[in-house]
Amino acid sequence: MDKKSSVDQAVEAVADLGRDIGDYIREQRNNAQISLRQLAKLAGVSNPYLSQIERGLRKPSAEILQQIAKGLRISAEALYVQAGILEQRVGGAVVDAVLADAELTERQKQVLLDVYETFRRENASRRAADVTEDTEE
């Protein structure tokens, strides 16, 4: 009985991932003010297939997610994270926003991300020093 419930839970978790990625794609499409038909054309997939993805009935491949991301002008990595293909990187939304910005060159994106990581490391070191200082008192 326990084995069956574990399998059922795993099946539900996978189904939830499909719904989650579909909801995320729909939300991004609505934010971009792009119709389902327009996104399907931009991504090179059929309207019914994209609709099924958005409703959580289909789980798209990494390649299809990349095409959808391109059509939405967001990073493919953001979709991979939502789909459970990748784990979210440190920095999350900031990193995704920089990577998704079509106005920046790849070099500019890398410089911005390097500066961002430097600030994060400095703040983490400062917090660690504060904690050490507090425990010594």
Descriptors for this entry?
7 helices; mainly alpha; 137 residues; single chain; elongated
Structural commentary:
- By secondary structure, the chain is mainly alpha-helical.
- Helix content is 77%, strand content 0%.
- It contains 7 helices and no strands.
- It has helices at residues 2-31, 36-43, 47-54, 62-72, 76-83, 92-100, 106-136.
- It is elongated.
- The mean pLDDT is 82.
The percentage helix is over 70%
Which range does the strand content fall in?
Answer: under 5%
Going by helix content, strand content and strand pairing, the class is mainly alpha
**What is the number of strand segments?**
0
Residue-averaged pLDDT: 82
Tell me the span between the first and last alpha carbons.
55 Å
Question: How would a textbook summarize the main sheet?
Answer: none
Extract low-pLDDT stretches: none
Overall 3D shape: elongated
Task: Encode the helix/strand succession as letters.
Answer: HHHHHHH
Radius of gyration: 20 Å
Helix segment tally: 7
